[in-house]
Amino acid sequence: MEDFDPDIDFEVRQHVAALQIDPAKYQHLIDLRRTTQHLPRAVLAGSIGAMLGALSWLGITAFTTFQVGAMAIVIGFSIGGVVRLAGKGIDRSFGLTAVILTLAASAAGTLLSGCWMIAMGSEEAAFADVLNSLTPGLITQIYREVLTPMNLAYYGVAAAAAYWLGIQRIRRHEMAMCALEKSQ
Question: Count of CB atoms within 10 A of residue 31's CB?
Fold first, then answer.
């Protein structure tokens, strides 16, 4: 089993061992799958998903007048799925890409929602004015006010979901095609 790529998850390696898979056939399958994966396409699609997710978070906040931290989980599932579909990747880099984009979208959604809440609480500042007046100090203050341990837990669940969904798995029927020939 040492010949297998460490990027392939442990569960798949267990199934390979249990099914008595021909290592050469399995490695050929992995190499074939890697020819179809495309990280730049995954990054592009995931980035678009991240922007839409942050804007959706802002929209939910504007509609409900609440900062909904659970939006991070929705964003994590969405970006993970988009990265998997667009990138068709089986390597860890696709999962990590989904995690980074999910955390960036969640941070942006939190910040935009915080700005919206400031604008709604102020009679003289519009949302655009709050965005234009953002400084590192104000950003830090917004995050201090908005981020709670529960929100950070949502971020963690979102990151885990994005990682898991961002990587395409080798399916059992694909592994079965790599089974050793039975000797008679």
Answer: 10
Mean of pLDDT values over 130-140: 93
Angstrom CA distances, 183 to 21, 46, 90, 177, 180, stand at 14, 47, 32, 16, 9
Q: Residue 65 has what pLDDT?
A: 84
Residue 115: HSE in the Cβ half-sphere, 13 Å Cα cutoff = 23
Give the dihedral sign, CA 47/52/57/62: positive
Residue 156 and residue 175 in one domain: no
pTM for the model: 0.82
Strand partners, 179: 21
**Domain, as residue range, for 24:** 9-37+170-184
Answer whether 98's CB lies under 8 Å from 43's CB: no
In the chain, the number of structural domains is 2
19, with CB counted inside 10 A (0-12, 13-18, 19+), is middle
Contact 76, 166 (CB under 8 A): no
**149/135 Cα distance (integer angstroms):** 24
The verdict on residue 1 lying in a domain is no
- Phi, psi values for residue 145, rounded to 5°: -75, -40
Establish if 157 belongs to a structural domain. Answer: yes
Mean of pLDDT values over 52-60: 95
Query: What pLDDT does 158 receive?
Result: 97
